[in-house]
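WARN no homologs supplied; continuing
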Amino acid sequence: LIIFLTVSASGFYLMKKLDLLYPNNRLNLSEDSISSLVEKVYILCTASPREQDRSQCLREQVGIFTSKYGLVTAEVILGSLISKKDLVKGCHVLAHEIGYAAYKKNPKGFWVGLKIANSDTCGAGTPHGLVESYLVDHPEVELNNEFIEKVCLNDDPYKQGSCTHLVGHLF
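OK structure emitted
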């Protein structure tokens, strides 16, 4: 029994470290589960009468969802939260939180994250958060044409333009 528990715990830890339990590149929850989570967040975050507290609550919850379920699922949850107009006033900053949390969860997955992040959601906030996190983590990186081309290389002209726009803000 002790060997089984040790092996199981080691396997779970390894899967978690390798990002195999909740990979970023697929949806990890059913539509019903997402709807249920959105309602819980709505109740939790609307409990405060202060706009600042509601916004902070949303940012924290989006970070938690990203860490727990991955980038793709967090973007879908955010898409559902956007329908709560009395709670979500703007989603670009919330999408940044997805990028921050996804990078924190798996810094080695940065390049994959950039490819799978939905640039059509919330003014491309998710890739913006990813790039910001990467640059904070890598101060040795120079913001030059080579970096911009590498980060922004994309077949989708919208994604490429959005990325170039982001990098412009960083200068």
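Residues 7-22 have pLDDT under 50 and may be disordered.
OK
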